[in-house]
């Protein structure tokens, strides 16, 4: 197996890397073994960590509310069925299980000291519409599989602290357009007003829970928050959802942090008119203005130094961070009246802006807004910029990340023999439950390679050997708590 060395893994590479023609078709040995002290060899628990885990992921991927594609939203029938399956697998691994009043599924083993601070491991069981079967599910299944290995070799009770696996009921926010319902409740940052949020059918979060025999009140929601003093830390394993690991030919990476995010809505208003009768020199066309604004956004995000260096609003460290982590996207555009023979009177588009440096992200938003207003003034159109969402970046805990890096290295090393490359360190441009849990305790993450970097799609795919590597890394991490 060949690994490609690449420097500065802590950078976010999506703007700079191209997929190699020899991407991650690297296969692990079919019967990877490692020598024991007595000279014998043993399987690296492939039956549980690889075969059974892959089969369970496949089974979970068939639990859907839709015919022909995967969809599981908060408290939907498929979500409840998926919870039953996961609960069965948790109990098979020797865990005590329960469902809390936000629909989160918990599985816990107390270890040698039930009063010690607990390690939480989690991810989400809900999906987007037309989803892949690894997003969220892989983190849950890998944790359960690793604990099952400990049970099978009689070491589950030797953990020096309690370990709790949580399958969060909602991370994607598809049904109620409010992300992290499950993990935010555990972290104690979900406002009680969230219980009254309605879906498209008028069903509230509280109604959805009640429909599944879960009674929740404002008081019981507040009671879901874990005591920070009782928690040692939180670890989440997740597919990368990007192409970097495949490009470098490595199955696992440690996550340095999760990017902060700003979402904006930009409305450009001009003069509506007939497409054939208004001379070009007399037009106040919001579509042309919007096009220039979008190109400005792209330029600023590709070359932030060109826009931010002269003003002195960012120091060199921030500029360096932005040059490697800043990503910007226009995902929606709408026009009125949206007819081929009419100069539109109004154009609206969204901006999704993410960076690991919050100070830099604010500087980009400020500069972008100023430049947009100038363009609109020059074009004699009006421009309204609304900030719809802000989330600060989350930096993963250094000590926890170091332990995870060691566990990932050990797992890959045991599977393929001696390796000399370091485990990559990446930034996450996508949001994860770890963002919510960071308000409760220190967090760390591992990424797992996925084919083509494709996610939120039926094409989402993880090699069975990478599933194995993921489970083995979790096992190695747990064994450091024994």
UniProtKB/TrEMBL annotation:
Its top-level enzyme class, in one word, is hydrolase
A GO cellular component annotation in the UniProt record: endoplasmic reticulum
The Peptidase M20 dimerisation domain extends over 260-371
Q: Does the keyword Secreted apply?
A: no
Q: Which reaction does it catalyse?
A: allantoate + H2O + 2 H(+) = (S)-2-ureidoglycine + NH4(+) + CO2
EC number from the UniProt entry: 3.5.3.9
Q: Where is it mostly found?
A: endoplasmic reticulum
One Gene Ontology biological process:
allantoin catabolic process
The entry's keywords: Endoplasmic reticulum, Hydrolase, Manganese, Metal-binding, Purine metabolism, Signal
Matching entries from CDD domains are given as: M20_bAS
Localization, UniProt = Endoplasmic reticulum
User: What range does the record give for the signal peptide?
Assistant: 1-32
Q: Which cofactor(s) are needed, names only?
A: Mn(2+)
Q: Which GO terms describe its molecular function?
A: allantoate deiminase activity; metal ion binding
Q: Which family does it belong to?
A: Belongs to the peptidase M20A family.
The annotated subunit structure for this chain is: Homodimer.
Name of the protein: allantoate deiminase
Q: Which organism is it from?
A: Gossypium hirsutum (Upland cotton)
